[in-house]
Design goal:
Layout lengths: L1 H37 L1 H41 L3 E9 L2 E3 L2 E4 L2 E10 L2 E10 L7 E11 L2 E10 L20 E10 L4 E10 L13 E11 L2 E10 L14 E16 L2 E12 L4 E10 L2
Helix pairs in contact: 1-2
Length: 297
């Protein structure tokens, strides 16, 4: 379809140029005939009309340029409206999430599509150390406009034990391994802020043994130093819940991390991003080091 559109536009431009050439030739021929027929009177008419001809030619050329500009703008809009696909996988030395250790070495693939700010993605984690290691599948529907982003994520993991049989399609309120979370955030460029709250599925409880609607707030600051991309993160649990850190009695700092990422050049046309991350959880007084790499086509 794109080739047909391009050929049609090229044909249009050629026809316009040929048409312009024919118009100019006809006008010049007509005025020369006037000169021959009316002598000096025709010559003065020719000189007067010459300026009009040039104006018409310029206007005709501008019309063609504007048409071609419109085509180029249409191509740019079509390019901006393309469906984008994400396909990659991280290999990590250990699985750390929001300051909590979830498992050992893992393969974590991502598959996603995006169109005009709307995105749907699937993320997973599969332990490499043993068959009984943590497995997780997250589905996220998100929308971004400018710096604002909102989303809903369905987390499923075999480490919750609400359903001992680890059935993926079991959604009973009090016996499912799914957790549904909503998030809202804003990217200011120099820093981004995100708020996450569980609203359905498996969740922790508060001090009254009721659903806690567990929440997490995170601030992230990206920066570049010594030719390396860095990301500093600070995460907090705002109120009591048993969902984070087994038990968090109230406001607590649960995630302080610093990550460095650098492209490792393999060949002239292929490189692999490698990252190292230090993570500390003041709430549990634990710390972790993570090494990983990203594979993408």
């Amino acid at each position: 379809m794109r080739r047909i559109q391009n050929k049609s536009r090229l044909l249009f431009c050629i026809l316009c140029l040929k048409g312009a050439k024919c118009v100019v030739q006809l006008l010049i021929t007509s005025m020369k005939n006037n000169v021959k027929k009316f002598g000096d009177t025709g010559k003065s008419s020719y000189l007067c009309n010459k300026k009009d001809i040039m104006k018409k030619i310029v206007l005709f050329a501008l019309a063609i340029a504007m048409s071609m500009s419109a085509f180029a703008q249409e191509d740019g809009e079509q390019s901006a409206c393309k469906v984008e696909t994400t396909l990659l996988a991280d290999v990590v030395s250990n699985f750390i999430w929001r300051g909590q250790e979830q498992g050992s070495a893992a393969l974590q693939p991502t598959l996603g599509i995006a169109y005009k700010g709307l995105s749907l993605s699937a993320w997973g984690s599969c332990g490499l150390a043993s068959a009984d290691d943590v497995k997780e599948i997250d589905l996220t529907l998100a929308y971004t406009i400018g710096g604002l982003n909102i989303g809903i994520t369905d987390y499923w993991t075999n480490s919750v034990y609400a359903d001992p049989e680890n059935r993926y399609f079991k959604y009973d309120a009090h016996s499912t391994n799914h957790t549904f979370e909503a998030n809202v955030g804003y990217d200011f460029g120099v820093a981004s802020l995100q708020w996450y709250t569980n609203f359905a599925g498996y969740d922790g409880v508060n001090k009254d043994c009721k659903r806690a609607y567990s929440s997490y707030f995170e601030a992230t600051v990206p920066f570049k130093f010594a030719a390396v991309d860095w990301t500093a993160t600070a995460g907090f649990v705002p109120y009591a819940t048993s969902y984070y850190n087994d038990w968090t009695s109230g406001f607590a700092v649960t995630n302080l991390s610093l990550m460095a990422t650098k492209e490792l050049k393999i060949t002239d046309s292929f490189s692999v991003p490698v990252f190292a991350q230090f993570v500390a959880n003041p709430c549990t007084q634990h710390a972790f080091m993570v090494l990983g790499l990203t594979l993408k086509p």
